[in-house]
Amino acid sequence: MTGSNRAWASDLAGNESNAFRLFTNFVAHFPTHQFAPQAQYWIATYYFRRGGGGTNYVNAEENYQKVFQNTKWSPSELSFQAQMMAGRSAYARQGYSDATNYFTRLINELKKLNSPSPLLPEAYYALADTYVRYPEAVPDSINTLENYKEAIVVLGKIPVEFPTNALAPLAWGQMGAYYSQLAGQTRDAKDYERAVKAYTLALNSDLADVTCRSLAQVGLAKVLERQAQEARDAERTNLLDQAFGHYWQVVEGKNLREQEVADPFWVKAAAIAAARLAEELRQWDVAAKLYERLRDELAPTLRKTWQLKLEKLAPLRSHIESAKN
After folding, report:
1. What's this model's pTM, rounded to 2 decimal places?
2. Residue 45 lies in a domain
3. Which residues contact 5 (CB under 8 A, 6 or more apart)?
4. pLDDT of the residue at 322
């Protein structure tokens, strides 16, 4: 059995320490072997999987570099993937400027290929996220608003260039979030409208899974609430009712497709928002039932919080019952 075969066997057996030793020795002794690039990639991924503190992400980045910087090993699909992972490693160690450089260079290289690479939409998505996380990552950026705008431009390429890719609805959802952030700072009605449109496109996409649709529906509800803050009384009530309806659909699983299971995180988030909004709309019974569900089912670890909410609502509910009688 060759060194690489023994290394792969150790990996499959779950003996990572032995696999790491064997792969390291294999690359050192047989750098021109056809399996050397895969072995080097495995070593980098070993460090990346360990993650956490220390120098693991630094070591991962350096070892991924060895794959795509070796002219005998690149360009290849593996070298492109290594460049992507070097960017993710830099991002994980909060080296956002380096991550931006990796993702940008990768995008430029992939766009030169004769056929589209499935890695390109991933690179677009990662670059947009880096722009938002690290303001200085955007060339000539003067404030965070510019970062959101640049991120939206990059994300917008995904549904245009890769409309059938699973990342397309996620890109719409993320654009909705970014437009919402812009609107919160600029108070520009057009940004609110763009956020609504982006969230709606994500929500209605056949490619969107339940998590993506739930994210979009909760995001859409929040935008409608913000719009309501600046609307007149009649329109305000209508917008808040629409917002509540979106939260309620997520809570009740009305957004589920056949054989789908609700995303617990977004059900809880929607229930919390719906209960708060129900209180604002003076729908005390509705709010109480939501808090009861949060207490007993959706977020029992915060039982005391929800119980306090219910105790504050109790007199209001009693008043309504008395009025009915």
Report:
1. 0.87
2. no
3. none
4. 53
